[in-house]
Structure formats: structure tokens, C-alpha cells
Specification:
This protein is mostly helical and 260 residues long. The protein has 10 helices and 3 strands, in the order H-E-H-H-E-E-H-H-H-H-H-H-H. It has 2 domains: 76 residues, Winged helix-like DNA-binding domain superfamily/Winged helix DNA-binding domain (Arc Repressor Mutant, subunit A, Orthogonal Bundle), CATH 1.10.10.10; 165 residues, Four Helix Bundle (Hemerythrin (Met), subunit A) (Up-down Bundle), CATH 1.20.120.530. Strand 2 and strand 3 form a beta hairpin. The C terminus is likely disordered.
Length: 260
């Protein structure tokens, strides 16, 4: 028995409605993910905070399904940890996390630099890296640290892209996301971005000259030095999760710790 035109129209309408519902659900899930990620990375949700799809749905004014999907994605990103019946905990930032992430970061970046130099890096890429670094310095001197963090991430990511290795890009994106909260420790030491500018300039020059040994040596010094700076900042200023409230205050006022 064949379909009538009416039956065909009903099937098409049903299919269209399902596609629209799916797009709406995906859009809501993406919106929930973006909002929760923003709250975590801005310390609006601080390390150690417990969240649940029920409480978040009430706060955000969204149904629990997209919230739950967003939570699963953030768990995959390493920003949330499941805490059995209590819900989910915003991942704490510990010295071990700092060390692990910076070691992983160095491994990926070092490999990317070696591959990129072996393949050859164009003058356009070198110019783009230099321009990003100059903009980073300007943002640092203006104490616009959100822009500093964005430019620093973009600069390092450009090196990964230059390697042409899709797997490295994928792994590095995850590390950059988890490093974002650690970068906020810069508010305790506002001299760090300008020091990073000088390291970047030496790395870029070495890449442009095709000098693998120099590029990787400076890269190691830059990343390990930043790691050690963050560990020292944590030792001096972050004794418990409640101290992140101080950091959040500094961020909101763009103050120096010495001025408190």
C-alpha cells in the first residue's frame, strides 16, 4: 500500500518538527554550557563549589535536560568532578594540577615547535606571532588581563596550528581550557605578562631562524618558569578554597594584592 500525498506531508512535517526540536535542544545545551563554563572560569563558581542540575536550572532559568548535558560536557573538559549523590564539584586547583598541566603543556608545545620548524614556518606566521605578542604587551601595560589571557592562548595555539598536527591541536585545546583559571593567579603578580612577552619574542625569533634547540630551550624555560611562579603564588596566597574569593575581588576591582 503506497503513501498518499497527505501521509507524505504529515511525515515531512513530523520530520521537520523533530529537526527543529533537536536544533532547539542543541542550542539550549550550548547556551547552558557557555554560561556554566563562564561562571567556572570567572570564579563565579569557585573551586570546591557543589552544583547540581536542579539548583542550576533554577538559577539560570532553564530546564534540567540542557543543564545536565552541559554538566556532562564540563566534566569531560575536566572542570567538574562527579561527587556521587551530592552532585558535581567544581574542580579544585591544586599544586599537583598546576604541575601536571604545565608538564603536559610543555610536552605538546615542544613537539609542535619541532614539527613546525621541520616543516618550515612561513613569514606570515612569524609576523602573526609577533603581532599577537606586541598586542599582549600593550594589554599587559593597560592591565587588561582578560585580553592578555586571550592573546597569550592565541599565540601559543598558533604555534600548535603551525605544526599541522590535528591531534596536538585537540589535546592542547583541552589543556588551554583547564589552564584558564590558573592564569587568574596573574592578578597577584601583574609583572608576569611582560616577562612572558620577552620569552615569546625569543621563541618567535628562534622559530623564524629554524633553530630547534634554541626555540625548545627558551620554551622550556618559559613554561617551567611560569609553572614555578604560579606554584609560588599559590603557596603565598591560596591556603584554602575561600582564598579564591580574594582573587575574585581583585579581578572585579583590577587591584594589586599589596593595595588591600
Amino acid at each position: 500500500m503506497g503513501f498518499t500525498k497527505k501521509s507524505s506531508d504529515i511525515i515531512k512535517r513530523s520530520s521537520t518538527e523533530e529537526e527543529m526540536t533537536l536544533k532547539k535542544d542543541t542550542s539550549l545545551s550550548d547556551a547552558a554550557y557557555s554560561e556554566l563554563k563562564r561562571r567556572i572560569l570567572s570564579l563565579e563558581l569557585m573551586p570546591g563549589d557543589i552544583v547540581s542540575d536542579f539548583s542550576l536550572s533554577q538559577e539560570i532559568g532553564m530546564s534540567r535536560t540542557p543543564i545536565r548535558e552541559a554538566i556532562f560536557r564540563l566534566r569531560g573538559d575536566g572542570l567538574l568532578i562527579e561527587k556521587s549523590r551530592r552532585g558535581y564539584e567544581v574542580r579544585r586547583v591544586t599544586p599537583v594540577d598546576v604541575t601536571d598541566l604545565f608538564d603536559a603543556r610543555e610536552g605538546i608545545e615542544r613537539t609542535a615547535v619541532e614539527i613546525a620548524i621541520r616543516k618550515g614556518v612561513s613569514d606570515d606566521v612569524i609576523q602573526r606571532l609577533s603581532d599577537l605578542n606586541k598586542r599582549l604587551l600593550a594589554a599587559s601595560r593597560a592591565e587588561d588581563f582578560d585580553t592578555v589571557f586571550d592573546l597569550d592562548s592565541e599565540l601559543h595555539n598558533e604555534v600548535i596550528i603551525a605544526s599541522g598536527n590535528a591531534r596536538l591541536r585537540e589535546y592542547y585545546a583541552s589543556i588551554l581550557l583547564q589552564l584558564r583559571r590558573m592564569r587568574l593567579l596573574t592578578y597577584f603578580r601583574k609583572d608576569l605578562p611582560e616577562a612572558a612577552y620577552h620569552d615569546h619574542r625569543r621563541i618567535i625569533e628562534a622559530i623564524g631562524e629554524g633553530d630547534v634547540d634554541e626555540a625548545t630551550a627558551v620554551l622550556h624555560s618559559h613554561i617551567s618558569g611560569t609553572r614555578d611562579d604560579y606554584l609560588e603564588i599559590m603557596k603565598e596566597n591560596i591556603r584554602s578554597e575561600s582564598d579564591y574569593a580574594v582573587l575574585r575581588f581583585l579581578m572585579s576591582r583590577n587591584l594589586r594584592i599589596a593595595s588591600l
